[in-house]
Design brief:
Low-confidence stretches: 1-6, 334-338
Largest sheet: 7 strands, parallel
Order of helices and strands: EHEEEHHEHEEHEEEHEEHEHHH
Bound molecules: uridine-5'-diphosphate
Radius of gyration: 20 Å
Structural class: alpha/beta
Oligomer: single chain
Strand content: 15-25%
CATH class of the domain at 15-189 and 227-253 and 286-304: Alpha Beta
Length: 338
């Protein structure tokens, strides 16, 4: 457990609050914390999260769920030792559709989550993002890079909300002495991503598993670096328990072009899909690769799961989701006979 000037007072079980606890990453974090003996209170308004991600926790006495928008005042009885602020739309098509909610959860939601941490004497961790670097002019991206963000472009609502959230966390740290942690999360994938969330992993996997064309945006030469969700959870947990209050990149530095990624998806799924090209969305970053030097040296963290391994686990999840959907669409009579 952490030692610091403001160490949370722990009973038999540390208590963690996870905002966005029914989302893709939030729900993995809830599972990760429960497995480490935390009592967990998850808060979510189901704007992009879903009850399916936490349904398996029904009846678990260590788990409590509150359906609430975290931009509203958070009142919780009892002790809280850790606040993990994960609530936010995070896929480009989600935050394009919900720009005001994205700005509000990054600003007002972060304010409420920091207020809760301050009131309870808890540590606070912000799920920040590689998007704070925008379309980066420095490659790979170290935490010392200030970024190249278009504040008024379509991605500005997410990028600037997260930059504001980082600034607010630092202000609470400096002015109120709150123990704050900032993790800059690079592209992460795994089970529980929504089939239709528009990000490249669910998009390509659902296309490949249905033998439909894979939609590469632009010429496919833009790069990303994909981290499997269990690696990310390990890095985030280490960060919260560390003494590092500077931002830390957590992501997999193995960089790949989107075109190569499309071919890899076709290979690992054994799909008959072909590749087609669609226009590149505005301000789509051309390259992205985390410099994970700080996570390696300060947290002793590095990713363990290779892309083929992680994709294997993710494919299983997507295959089942596609089968479930197909079953749900079949008429009742035919379903009984099949
Ligand atoms: N992309 C693509 N086809 C798709 C979805 C995304 O080529 O059907 C590209 C997108 O233009 C971007 C990259 O894949 O260059 C990663 O996109 P994603 O939405 O997953 O997240 P981002 O890293 O851009 O936030």
């Amino acid at each position: 457990m952490p030692s610091s000037k403001q160490q949370p007072r722990l009973g038999s079980h540390p208590v963690s609050v996870v905002t966005g606890g029914a989302g893709f990453l939030g729900s993995h974090l809830v599972d990760f914390l429960l497995a480490r003996g935390h009592r967990v209170i998850a808060i979510d308004n189901f704007v992009t999260g879903t009850v399916n991600n936490i349904a398996h926790l029904g009846g678990n006495p260590q788990f409590k769920f509150i359906q609430q928008d975290v931009t509203e005042f958070l009142f919780l009885d009892g002790p809280v030792h850790y606040v993990w602020h994960f609530a936010s739309p995070a896929s480009p098509i989600d935050y394009l559709e919900l720009p005001i909610q994205t700005l509000k959860v990054g600003s007002l939601g972060t304010h409420k989550a920091l207020g809760l941490a301050r009131h309870k004497g808890a540590r606070f961790l912000l799920a920040s993002t590689s998007e704070v670097y925008g379309d980066p002019l420095v490659h790979p991206q170290p935490e010392t890079y200030w970024g190249n963000v278009n504040p008024i472009g379509p991605r500005g609502c997410y990028d600037e909300a997260k930059r504001f959230a980082e600034a607010l966390a630092m202000a609470y740290h400096r002015e109120h002495g709150i123990e704050t942690r900032l993790v800059r999360i690079f592209n992460t994938y795994g089970p529980r991503m929504r089939l239709d969330d528009g990000r490249v992993v669910p998009a390509f996997l659902s296309q490949a598993l249905r033998h439909q064309p894979l939609t590469v945006f632009g010429d496919g030469r833009q790069t990303r670096s994909f981290c499997y969700c269990s690696d990310l959870m390990d890095g985030i947990y280490r960060l919260m328990m560390s003494e590092v209050s500077e931002p830390v990149n957590v992501g997999n530095p193995q960089e790949i072009t989107i075109m190569e990624f499309a071919r890899e998806i076709i290979r690992v799924t054994g799909s008959r899909s072909r590749i087609i090209f669609k226009p590149l969305p505005q301000d789509d970053p051309r390259q992205r690769q985390p410099d994970i030097g700080r996570a390696r040296t300060r947290l002793g963290w590095k990713p363990q799961v290779t892309l083929p391994e992680g994709l294997g686990k993710t494919i299983e999840f997507f295959r089942n989701r596609i089968l479930d959907r197909a079953k749900a669409r079949k008429p009742a009579g035919r379903r009984r006979n099949s």
